[in-house]
Amino acid sequence: MVKFGTALLSAAAVSVLGASPSAAATILQKFDGVSLRDFITASNGFGTTPPDMAGAVSNTHVMQVVNGGVAIFDRSGNRLSYQRTDQFISAAGVPVSFQNSPFDPRLKYDPNSKRFFGVMESVGPPGGTMAPSNGRDFPKLGEDGESEGAELHNVLLGPDGNPVPGQQGVSSTPNNPIYVFVSKTSNPLDGFNAVKFNTSQSLFGDFPTLGLTRDALTITTNDFDDHSLQSVSIFSIPKADLLQNAPSLANMTRLEGLDPALFGFAVQGVNNDGPSNGTQKLVAISAVAYNQENISQLAFNGNGRVVGLTPEGATAILYDGDTRGSRQPVLVSPPLDGGGDRISNDVHQVGNYIYVTHTYGDGQFGAPTHFNGIAYEIIDATTNLVVAQGNIEDPNMDFTHSSITPDSTGKYFALAYTGSGPDHAITAYANVCTFDSVALSTHCGNRLTVMEGLDPGYVLTLGGDRNRWGDYSDVQWDQLTGTFWLFQEYPGLRGGNAPPNSGRWNTVISQISVPEPATWAMMMLGFGFVGFGMRRTRRPTISYA
């Protein structure tokens, strides 16, 4: 499939705040999350990359799941437990081998049921072994819709940091397993229950996503054969069935073999903690056209079971274009993985508005891309039109791997993302923004430096055409304290072995305040607006404890 053209742009207010003398939001605390070193220590010298970030926060605990590892912390950052993902899922009731360790995690704490819900996939079948594939598994759909080479997943690294022969990835293992896990109580230390189902169509169901509502938990996959994307699929499970002492998939609905031209690529089921209206929206970047997002809708009966799926067409967005490899200070070839323009992490709805973010390249309609930026859209769930949107960009930097979440009112939202450039090491950044639902405009405060990378030239190609990074960050709203929690990757000090596989990823978990309303009013009156982009010259200095 080849992307083309664009739809007519709907009227949408786009405004972002210019530079200001101080940050509108502050970092309250931050601490180390799971690192590559944790997995190596727990796996007799083996490692895995990239981390693929998932995190969630309850009133008592912080939980993080990455490729290969699951950690639970108290809210002050003290680590209380750590398991490999195969150990975690096996302890939850579904045996899985180390060689088939689950990956591509998604995680959410549900304030309604007071449970943690999560999803991971594996290469399967359980008990099988990884097929040698020179460090690659399946072709990744490029931003132009064409295959642009293979994407690395669940890559096992030996003690020297290099890929293990014959364990460098997987071929497109068809009908692979998807794991769903739910905490037994609000305390994740009390354990989890897990269930498993397999994809079908003799395809590899990749990049599972999680969308949770009052009615159901919805999972989507991109379905690949050995060469390219063939379809997308949707799996929806009544939430009540997962909250039983023995979770059940008996009422799960499988909607497989769907056309990406209608439903998009990397479809995201919308997360909505609000009252049920018997529906759930799904949003995805178009697989065939620039500057569009596809929207569809599931309908449920009173028991949370799907009774209908409706593709509702495409809505126009301003910011979309081929992404490029991200730049670093030290001359490194090839560049850092930019992640593509897909919506890589959760989409959220508060009231009637849906919050979306993704990476884009400045080259519109297939023109050459010079830098990557972060775009966000706020969509009216009734009309499916984008009512406000904005971007974060700087021609001297590349911003990628963004995630978004609103607060419980929808007035504030936070963005977490990666940034790097010729003068900037890979760094975890964040912004806190406001959305005015009357004026239909957005305003973002200063870019916060959450954690600067320790390695100015991150190198981890594993035989691919990019230094492997990502594939996504995560950000969650904390109702207890009215703050945002961010889960992000940054480069640690490199390993002792020589390139090309010396990169070492770390993660950081941070808690960020919401600014006082008076602060926003002062900033908006005193400093005005600048076009469509946000370009910061000042950043707060944050010490790392």
Automatic annotation (TrEMBL):
Signal is among the record's keywords: yes
UniProt signal peptide: 1-24
Entry's transmembrane regions: none
DNA damage recorded as keyword: no
Pfam families the UniProt entry points to: PEP-CTERM (PF07589)
InterPro entries associated with the record: Ice-binding_C
Domain spans labelled Ice-binding protein C-terminal: 513-538
Keywords assigned: Signal
Protein name as annotated: Ice-binding protein C-terminal domain-containing protein
